[in-house]
Amino acid sequence: MIEVEHLTKYYGQTPAIRDVSFTVERGEVLGFLGPNGAGKTTTMRILTCFIPATSGTVRVGGFDVFTQSLEVRKRIGYLPERVPIYKDMTVDCYLDFVARLKGVPSRSRKTKIDEVKTNCGLHDVSGRIIGKLSRGYTQRVGLAQALLNDPEVLILDEPTVGLDPKQIVEIRNLIRSLAGKRTIILSTHILPEVSMICDSVAIINEGRIVAKDSISNLHTGRQMRITLGVNGPPEKVVAAISSVEGVGKVAELQRTATGVRLDVSFKPGADPRPGISALVVGSGWELIELRPEGLSLEDIFIRATAEEGEVEQ
Ligand code: ADP
User: Fold this and answer.
1) Do residue 20 and residue 116 come from a single domain?
2) Helix (H, G, I), strand (E, B) or coil at 282
3) Same domain for 112 and 128
4) Given 219, 234, 250, which residue is the final one in a domain?
5) Is the CB of 14 under 6 A from ligand 1?
6) How far apart are CA 126 and CA 116, in angstroms?
7) Of 161, 196, 219, which marks where a domain is finished?
8) Domain annotation covers residue 312
9) Which of 7, 14, 54 has most ligand 1 atoms within 8 Å of its beta carbon, as the pocket-test mutant?
10) How far apart are CA 185 and CA 263, in angstroms?
11) What is the pLDDT along the chain (313 residues), one digit of tens a residue?
12) What are the b/e assignments for 256-274, b being 16+ CB within 10 Å?
């Protein structure tokens, strides 16, 4: 649904994003994760036809954002980090205004506005002045305006920034409920948000994509550690396990009455579990625990961004 190829953007002499490529399938919810200043907003502004790229291409639903921007705009709903909302309008007036701007035909305008108000839980505040609403409700109005043209693609830039914990939960649930038939890109610097809302994640750091995978693959596909429990003499067990091919670091977690529990990490791409179990049994010890430990998204993020320098939080 979205194909980004070799996208580069310079602001003057400064590169904001460099050679960014990724794809988003129809119906996928992609978390666009990166520290502040990584290039998330820049990428989203290009995707939504707000600014041109220096080089590279983006296609949305097969249409090019540079040469067919009208077609792309029809298909996209955009919630920028700061929504351009007219604070002295009522919710109804504002939604009607945006619906006209987006060319929603007059015969279906009222139905469409009603529908987005239902989706975003706005009926109770229809007549209220937007400037008097809480930040959580203002964000819902922002989402509602993005949905007015019934877009196939939703681009949400840091949708929960500035909300209190209760509002954050509400907005996350709302976004989840909008997924399904829509393709969503959601930028955030909040790691748990990605695990909670998204199917996949692209990690961007200093303007470059450093990882892109499904959440489940990221958690299990890079499983490189186990917790290992062995009944046997601790020092000998540690030395023997450390010498198994494919084993990286071995750290002692706990001494038990009869043996030891270890944290064993694997060398990249290796799976030394068969070697470990053969060694333990062959030495006459007992294997009592061998539990894979998936990497947390935080581990993955830190590993992915570490090579590029300090991680801002
Ligand atoms: P993020 O959304 O991940 O915080 P941005 O896309 O806003 O990152 O910014 C990426 C880089 O581009 C940053 O170094 C930022 O300072 C720079 N930048 C963003 N907008 C502009 C602009 N209008 N002019 C100059 N530099 C900019």
Assistant:
1) yes
2) helix
3) yes
4) 219
5) yes
6) 12
7) 219
8) no
9) 14
10) 36
11) 999 999 999 999 999 999 999 999 999 999 999 888 999 999 999 999 999 999 999 999 999 999 999 999 999 999 998 887 888 999 999 999 999 998 899 999 999 999 999 989 899 999 999 999 988 899 899 999 999 988 999 999 998 888 888 888 888 888 888 888 899 999 988 888 888 889 999 999 999 998 888 887 776 555 578 999 999 999 999 999 999 999 999 999 999 999 999 999 888 778 899 999 999 999 999 999 998 876 667 777 777 777 544 433 3
12) eeebbbbebbbeeeeebbe
Q: Is the same domain home to 77 and 174?
A: yes
Residues 168 and 276 in one domain: no
- Looking at the structure, do residues 210 and 242 belong to the same domain, yes or no? no
Identity of residue 58: V
Q: Is 86 in the pocket of ligand 1 (CB under 6 A)?
A: no
Confirm or reject: Cβ of 37 under 6 Å from ligand 1.
yes
- Pair of tokens at residue 258: 């009869």
The residue behind tokens 């914990």 is: 165
Which residues span the domain enclosing 59? 2-219
| pTM of the shown model | 0.76
